[in-house]
Amino acid sequence: MKKLFLLLFLSTIGFAQNANRKYISHQLNENVLEVKTSDGTYFIQSYTDKIIETSFVPNGEKFNPNSHAVVLKPNSNGFEFKQSTDYLEIKTNDLEVQIVKSPFKISYYKKGELLLSEKLGYFKRKHEPLEKVKGNIVYDSTEVIQFNINSTEKLYGGGARVLGMNRRGNRLALYNRADYGYETRSELMNFTIPIVISSQKYMVHFDNAPIGYLDLDSKKENVLEYETISGRKTYQVIAGDSWEDLIYNYTELTGRQPLPPRWALGNFSSRFGYHSEAEARRTIKKFQDENIPVDAIILDLYWFGKELQGTMGNLEIYRDSFPTFEKMVADFNKMGIKTIPITEPFILTTSKKWQEAVDKKILATDTKGNPFTYDFYFGNTGIIDIFKPSGKKWFWNIYQELANKGVSGVWGDLGEPEVFPAAAQTFGGTADEVHNIYGHNWAKLVFEGYRNDFPTQRPFILMRSGYSGSQRYGMIPWSGDVNRTWGGLSGQVEISLQMGMQGLAYMHSDLGGFAGANLDDELYVRWLQYGVFNPIFRPHAQSDVASEPIFRSDWAKNLAKQAIELRYSMLPYNYSLAFENSQTGIPLMRPLFFEEPENETLLTKSDGYLWGKDYLVYPIMEANQQSKEVYFPKNSNWTETNSTKKYSGGSTEKINVVTSHIPTFVRNGVLIPWTKTVQTTQNYDNSNLNFQLYFDEKVTSSERQFYFDEGNNSSENNPELLTCETEISKEVLLISMESNSSKSSSKSGSYLIYHINSKPKSVKINDKKIKFIYNKEYDILLFNYTHNSNKTTIKIKLK
């Protein structure tokens, strides 16, 4: 039997991974399998049944145990280990690592199914002639880890790009860099994450920070390759039983996004930029005069300087333009408006803080220890060494002072960093070694600063560059300086879906587009209508064309207002999605293949997506579009939210496009919460809760949970989880609402139930008959309810 197994095993894995690599010996050492070979040692351990880590340490090198991404501790129970004269095997309940001794080869299986195997594994690649990976340092060799993959799997990951959902066939640079004015294709952007996700529901995360490349079978040889200039030769293979399970496992490994403050789900007033306190006040007043909800205002770089160039790094209030900054912030706070100022990591040699930064030695240096300076768009500059304890403390003091003035969030811009010459030296390593984790560590210092000095306040940290695991520091990413065109809009769904699968579920765009002076009201409206179903709703643009709806045409303003009001009415649903993400890592925006993982055609589809579990959204991304082809996932029937027209799951329909909204559908048979529109989330009340139900006789039962708390406190004393269930029989529709605590807040509102084709015989709440309204023309049932105990039961007798 053993011989038969070995023959099958050898025929499956094919050729050896490296003819020069010879097995020498192995040992188990505290739940770590150490395999010594002729050119180095493998260290293999498990984190969970679905996460296994492999590290290779070449002869003459020492193992570096420090990960910037991983927070999970290895599994203390280890794994099952088997060996024979021919092979070694590690086995958990879900994963197996099989090592053939001769010819040497490592392969990874999930429940007996081959996922991938090391091809050449680790090796050094010489460059002749010499090649530059990036910057002004020439690398005569790079380090590579290479795998065999199968010929059919689709590949995702690598951070934020516009390449199409299936990124197989691309060689992706791992060097965070802005792509100003990008549109329909962008090969390199602000987030370059060293992770590959396979349509076979596994991930490979390369746990190493320095710059390099991720090759997703660009030569069409069924080879996956990670290439870097230096660092750890460590990777994790992560498996999942479903897409949700896979992302749960990855975010268990690298950390989950803390629940953001509730106001972050509201509308932002933002542009590049408000030049004065008076302009900021006028803008907020106009929102209020027009009764358009708004929760925050973002101050771009003019809060610390009058001029665009030459002042970056001042990082203190420019009193000529903002004479009573503290009072402005306080006044806004009373209105429920949060103030978020921009900051950058660059200290210009012309800025007020240059000499202080030099004296305190908080800047990146040259090889002689002098401040490293260079020119870029904003002037001659140095950059804060956030890896140095003194640099980190100095930068946090800036944020602490702003927080003490009442600001409610942080915007960290240009954190790729936008310009970071390879010759610069930091406390954490050379520029190229720390480039991709600069934004990650910047978010970390802000997050930890809030946790230590403002422990009850949930931080809001808006940043455009990060790394694996940046979500655990509360980073809110956005997709950079997208062009203000239909082409710019077209790639935004792909970016958000891809990033959500990589843990950064709050990826969003500058609604309306950022770059250029294109005044296109139709484009603007469609972008904002799409933004309703985004994690963050934040119109932002260069000042040539207004980003705020209050300054657009009446036509655009009115439609934008409708979109914003819809966004606010969805607060109970959206906030529950945010809570779910904080607990599971599951993104708010989800690819359609989450719903139908076996449907091959959906694996490359990004023109539509799921918002949470129960909204199906198809943005309009073409001018004057009259119709949209919509596929309805087969596991449910769906209803269009405005027309209440029903569509069958598994069908494809051509939908007529209207101006007032983008095609949006709701899953039948489940309860959808909504609330009344408020001017700011400060006016939102957890006790106001309405429900919609699109009745479907085929859905015999459903269950959804909705989360409620105070909205901003990191130490909630009495959060509430409300479980809502439905049961349907031929004669009765039962609805139950059950709170997880008798101390939970009361709820009252209305139920609106569609597709009830005859007047119910009765409606009872906790066995008491109540009055109801039935509209025969539209088959709608309406009644009010009050939930002020642990459990409320609603019984609707249909026949």
Radius of gyration, whole Å: 28 Å
Strand order of the largest sheet: 5-6-7-8-9-10-16-15-12
Overall helicity? 10-25%
N-end to C-end Cα span: 64 Å
Mean pLDDT value? 95
Q: How many beta strands in the DSSP annotation?
A: 47
**Based on helices, strands and strand pairing, what is the structural class?**
alpha+beta
- Please indicate the percent range of residues in DSSP E strands (runs of 2 or more): 25-35%
Task: Tell me what you see in this structure.
- With 799 residues, the protein is an alpha+beta fold.
- It is built from 13 helices and 47 strands.
- It has a nine-stranded antiparallel beta sheet with strand order 5-6-7-8-9-10-16-15-12, with helices on one face.
- A hairpin with a 2-residue loop joins strand 22 and strand 23 (379-383).
What would the keywords be for this entry?
799 residues; alpha+beta; nine-stranded antiparallel beta sheet; eight-stranded antiparallel beta sheet; 13 helices; 30% strand; globular; disordered N terminus
Topology overview:
Layout: H1 2-13, E1 23-28, E2 33-37, E3 40-48, E4 51-58, E5 80-83, E6 87-91, E7 95-100, E8 105-110, E9 113-131, E10 139-148, E11 155-157, E12 171-174, E13 195-198, E14 202-206, E15 212-216, E16 223-228, E17 234-239, H2 243-254, E18 268-270, H3 277-289, E19 296-299, H4 325-335, E20 338-343, E21 346-348, H5 354-359, E22 374-376, E23 379-383, H6 389-404, E24 410-412, E25 425-426, E26 429-430, H7 431-434, H8 438-453, E27 461-463, E28 475-477, H9 486-490, H10 492-501, H11 521-531, H12 554-569, H13 571-584, E29 589-590, E30 609-611, E31 615-617, E32 627-631, E33 638-640, E34 646-647, E35 652-656, E36 664-667, E37 671-674, E38 690-694, E39 701-708, E40 720-728, E41 732-739, E42 747-754, E43 762-765, E44 768-769, E45 773-775, E46 780-787, E47 791-797
Helix pairs in contact: 6-8, 11-12
